[in-house]
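G., before I forget:
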Amino acid sequence: MRMPEAESLLSQLADSMRKHVSADTALIGIHTGGVWLAERLHRSLGLKQPLGTIDVSFYRDDYESRGLHARVKPSSIPFEVADADVILVDDVLFTGRTIRAAINELFDYGRPQRIRLAALVDRGGRELPIAPQFLGVEVRVADNEQIELQKSADGRLSLVLTPMPALERK
Amino acid sequence: MAGNPQLNANGELHHLLTIEGLPRDIIVRILDTAHSFLSLTEREIKKVPLLRGKAVFNLFFEPSTRTRTTFEIAAKRLSADVINLNVGTSSQSKGETLLDTVANLSAMHADMFIVRHAQSGAAHLIARHVAPYIHVINAGDGRHAHPTQGLLDMFTIRHYKQDFTRLRVAIVGDVLHSRVARSQIHALTSLGVPEVRVIGPRTLLPNHVSELGVHVFHDMAKGLKDVDVVIMLRLQNERMNGALLPSAQEFFKYYGLTPEKLASAKADAIVMHPGPMNRGVEIDSSVADGNQSVILPQVTFGIAVRMAVMSILAGSG
C-alpha cells in the first residue's frame, strides 16, 4: 500500500489549523515524530509561545508489562501551562493511549485552559474516547503493520509502512 | 541468572548490586534516564506515577541519613509507598538472622528492598533469596560496593565534562575502606576514561589496587597534575581498627584538598565528594565551598539517578 505524501499533508494540516490558533496558542510535540511535526507547524503558523516537547515514557499504562522505554528523552515545557491554550501534536494516532499519557503529564505542569489534538495520520483502532481536532488524513492498515514518520537528512518528512514490532502487538 | 546475578533471563537489570560487570549500555541507559528525571524539578507536581502501588522498603542495617533520604525522595517522586526500617535498632539486636528479617518483610508484600549493610555481600545474599518479583538495590555493603553513588558520580562528571574518553580523574584519600572508590573505578573504566589515578598514603590504599587498571600516587602535587576531576573520599574513622594514620591533622597536611594543592589540577577541574565531609581533614572549607566544588549538585543528581535505577528495575518485571 502506498503511503500519502507527508509534506503535502503537513501543509494541509497547517492550513486547517491557521484560523483556529491565536498568537498565544502553544504547541507541544510528542516524541519523536510529533516533535518534528510540531517544529514545522510552529514555524508555519508563526506562533509566539516557545515550542514544548513531551516524552510520555513516565506516564505509559503498559510500564507494568513492558518496562521503561529504553530511550527516554526529557520533556520540556518552556511556558506557563496554567490557563494556556495547548495543542498536542502527534504523528500517528492509533489507540489513543499515548495521548492519554501526554494529557496526564501535562496536568502535572498545571491546569491548561484547553487542550486540542493535531495528528498527521489517524489509523483508527482507538481504545480510549480521544479524537483529533486537526487531522491530515485517515488511513486503514493491517493490524500487524505500523505507519512510521521518518525524517531525512535534509529535514523532509515521509510516511512509511513497516511491520509492527512483536512487542507492540496485542 | 547464572552469569550475572543482577540481570534477568532477558539481560535486563533486575537487581543493582555492583557496577562491576555491569554492561556499559546499561550504565549509559541509567544516566540517560536520570537526565529525563532532572526536568521534573521545574514542574508544579514533581511526581510521576511509575511506581504507584509499589512498596519500597529502605532496609538500613547501618546508619545513613543522606543515602536513605535521597532513596526515600526518589521513591516518593515515583509515587511508591516507602517504608523506612532502621534494622540495626530492632530485630537484629534481638537475634533475628538477615534472611529471616527479609522473609518477614517479603511477607508484608515488599516489591523492592534498598539495602545498606556493614557486611560485604549482604545485598547479594538477599537478592539470591527473595521471590523473583522482588528487586534489590545495594545502598552500600561493607567495603565492597555502593553502585548508586558511583552512578551519580558518573552523572555528575558527564554533566560538567560531557565526554568521558578524554578525561583524567583522580580519586583521593581513604581508598582502602571505600566502597565508593571501588564502584567509581569500575564505572570510570567501563565508560572509557583513559586515566584513573588513586592518591593516598600506602596504609590507606589496597595492596593490589593497580590491578584495577589505575595509576597509584602517594604525592598530591604529582597525582593532581592536570586532572579534570578530583574525587575526594571521606576519611572513614569508624572503619579503622588500629593505627593506620598518625592523626587527622597529619592526614590533612599531606592529603587534605587545599586551594594550593588543587592548583596542580586543570583550572576548570571539578571537585567532588560523596559526603559526609570532614572539613579540615580531607578537604579545606574554602575548596568545599569554592566555585570548583560540585558537591551539592551531586546530592541533587543522586535523586534523579536513584529514580532512574528504581524505574528501570521495577519495569524489568
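Chain B has a mean pLDDT of 92. The interface with chain A takes residues 12, 29, 32-33, 35-39, 43-45, 47-50, 311-312, 315-317 of chain B (CB under 8 Å).

More on Monday.
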